[in-house]
């Protein structure tokens, strides 16, 4: 899929495996220069090597960062800008909070959940948006959980963080929140509606877009991100 992203600079967090890795690989295959991150330097270095081998794109840079630590987020953004010159695309991904019911979660669990699933997204957006605004181009894609809408008993923390924009059908569902610099809000709503219609048709077996093979797996989620970016680029 040609997204018109060749040469763009992207930052993908929590990307040593799973959905984050899948998104990073798609962006690398599109010719993006990509910074990937994970808390574990060994696992993110292995992910980098694998992406380089599979895509042939050597402009992939791996760094360790704990997204619950503000200083790590600052350092990650600083290093990304030093390596890439600027960041055009943020694909935000993170791990899950500690599972547990309301009575089981401690105050420390709630504090960690706020930093893991909310504040780090705020920190990243605040640090990257000024550069995007200066260039008059930028894309932010936030990947989070469907428990925002459909809470499950042992993941009470996720419920109430916000209303999802669109949904991936799967046993391990994910949701994408997207914010861009397009001044026409109606166009943004049309893009989200396009994704919702695509997913709805897919669930009913009316369409099977190329690359969408197994619902909820990293390849599927990364392709949904690519469709979203492609829709934003068009028109």
Q: What key phrases describe this protein's structure?
A:
globular, 6 helices, 235 residues, single chain, Rossmann fold, alpha/beta, 14% strand
Radius of gyration, whole Å: 17 Å
Stretches where pLDDT falls below 50 for ≥5 residues? 159-185, 206-216
Number of strands: 6
- Structure annotation, total helices: 6
Q: How is the largest sheet built, in terms of strand order? A: 3-2-1-4-5-6
Spell out the blueprint of helices and strands.
Elements: E1 9-12, H1 18-29, E2 33-38, H2 41-55, E3 60-64, H3 70-84, E4 89-92, H4 107-135, E5 139-145, E6 174-180, H5 185-203, H6 218-233
Parallel strand pairs: 1-2, 1-4, 2-3, 4-5
Antiparallel strand pairs: 5-6
Helix pairs in contact: 1-2, 1-6, 3-4, 5-6
Summary of the model, kept short:
By secondary structure, this protein is of the alpha/beta class.
Explained architecture:
With 235 residues, this protein is an alpha/beta fold. It has helices at residues 18-29, 41-55, 70-84, 107-135, 185-203, 218-233; strands spanning 9-12, 33-38, 60-64, 89-92, 139-145, 174-180. It has a 6-stranded mixed sheet with strand order 3-2-1-4-5-6, with helices on both faces. Strand 2 (33-38), helix 2 and strand 3 form a beta-alpha-beta unit. Helix 1 (18-29) runs parallel beside helix 2 and helix 1 packs across helix 6 (218-233). The longest helix is centred in the middle third of the chain and has 29 residues, at 107-135. The two termini are 16 Å apart.
């Amino acid at each position: 899929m040609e997204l018109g992203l060749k040469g763009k600079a992207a930052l993908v967090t929590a990307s040593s495996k799973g959905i984050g890795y899948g998104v990073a690989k798609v962006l690398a295959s599109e010719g993006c220069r990509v910074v990937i991150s994970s808390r574990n330097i060994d696992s993110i270095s292995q992910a980098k090597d694998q992406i380089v081998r599979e895509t042939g794109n050597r402009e992939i840079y791996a760094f360790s960062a704990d997204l619950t630590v503000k200083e790590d987020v600052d350092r990650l953004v600083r290093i990304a800008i030093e390596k890439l010159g600027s960041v055009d695309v943020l694909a935000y991904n993170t791990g899950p909070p500690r599972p547990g019911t309301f009575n089981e979660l401690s105050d420390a669990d709630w504090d960690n959940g706020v930093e893991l699933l909310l504040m780090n997204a705020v920190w990243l957006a605040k640090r990257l948006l000024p550069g995007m605004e200066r260039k008059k181009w930028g894309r932010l894609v936030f990947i989070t959980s469907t428990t925002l809408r459909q809470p499950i008993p042992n993941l009470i923390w996720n419920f109430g963080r916000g209303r999802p924009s669109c949904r991936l059908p799967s046993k391990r569902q994910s949701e994408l929140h997207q914010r861009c610099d397009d001044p026409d809000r109606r166009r943004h709503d049309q893009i989200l509606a396009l994704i919702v219609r695509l997913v709805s048709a897919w669930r009913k077996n009316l369409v099977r877009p190329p690359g969408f093979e197994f619902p909820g797996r990293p390849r599927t989620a990364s392709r949904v991100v690519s469709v979203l970016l492609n829709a934003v680029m068009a028109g």
